[in-house]
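testing teh design pipeline on a random one, pls ignore if ur not involved
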């Protein structure tokens, strides 16, 4: 899979949890695209409403030339639902759009977005947001977003179009079992950290606001939250780089400080750079590292 090839094939994944009243409209917006996706996967995740019945009706009436796959899981996680749909896409699919089941895509959304991947190093095509439903307003996003551009505020929504090779290179949907309320944000950050950047689609994504939406039920920045919470730092990977010149008198203090750190070790990479040239100092470092 070439990392910068033009995108000619898109797959759409629609994760759905208790949105039986909306999912048909989402599906129909995909079928109305001027650039038709080559595969559509709808993932019913733990729904207890009429989602299963609606999806059966959709499958029975599907007239598109592309395959329509309906999967059922019991994960209770948008990230796992998206990843399940992603894994079910045919291997030749070059880009993926995850459309939340309560949102809709304007007819030109996929076509205009796919065209931007002709620009080298585009890993993501994001867009402005047009809110509808309980509110009606437009939210603008940056024209281009580079690595670090969304570290404090996320402007790449979950319905953006991702180059498949970029997700795979970044291992964008990796999951270590820890709950992550910022799953789509972390995926975008991982892709950008690999040297890709994101360009804005001229066609906005239509984001439905309603009482049951995740935006309303679980605000990203609740009252009293800190930067640590807002930036998702509890699941961020951190590298601590320490140059050491052989001052043995300071080594124990430095190592004791490291031992007291409470940052989760599974998210920590420690880089000790020994410039002392001392074999004994090197041995002391290795003994400590082996103990840790």
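output:
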């Amino acid at each position: 899979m070439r990392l910068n090839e033009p995108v000619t094939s898109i797959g759409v994944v629609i994760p759905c949890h208790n949105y039986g009243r909306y999912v048909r409209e989402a599906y129909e917006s995909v079928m109305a695209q001027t650039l038709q996706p080559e595969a559509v996967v709808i993932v019913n995740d733990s729904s207890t409403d009429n989602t299963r019945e609606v999806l059966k009706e959709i499958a029975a009436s599907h007239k598109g030339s592309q395959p329509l796959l309906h999967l059922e899981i019991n994960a209770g996680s948008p990230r796992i639902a998206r990843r399940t749909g992603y894994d079910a896409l045919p291997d030749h699919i070059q880009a993926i759009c995850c459309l939340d089941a309560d949102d809709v895509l304007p007819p030109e959304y996929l076509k205009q977005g796919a065209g931007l991947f002709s620009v080298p190093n585009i890993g993501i095509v994001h867009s402005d947001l047009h809110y509808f439903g309980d509110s009606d307003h437009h939210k603008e996003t940056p024209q281009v977003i580079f690595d670090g551009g969304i570290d404090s505020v996320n402007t790449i929504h979950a319905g953006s179009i991702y180059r498949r090779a970029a997700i795979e290179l970044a291992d964008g949907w990796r999951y270590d079992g820890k709950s992550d309320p910022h799953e789509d944000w972390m995926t975008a950050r991982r892709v950008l950290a690999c040297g890709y950047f994101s360009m804005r689609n001229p066609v906005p994504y239509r984001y439905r606001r309603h009482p049951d939406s995740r935006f309303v039920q679980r605000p990203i920045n609740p009252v009293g939250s800190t930067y640590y919470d807002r930036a998702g730092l509890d699941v961020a990977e951190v590298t601590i780089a320490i140059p050491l010149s052989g001052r043995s008198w300071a080594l124990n203090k430095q190592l004791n400080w490291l031992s007291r750190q409470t940052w989760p070790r599974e998210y920590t990479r420690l880089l000790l750079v020994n410039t002392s040239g001392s074999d004994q100092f090197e041995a002391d470092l290795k003994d400590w590292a082996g103990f840790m």
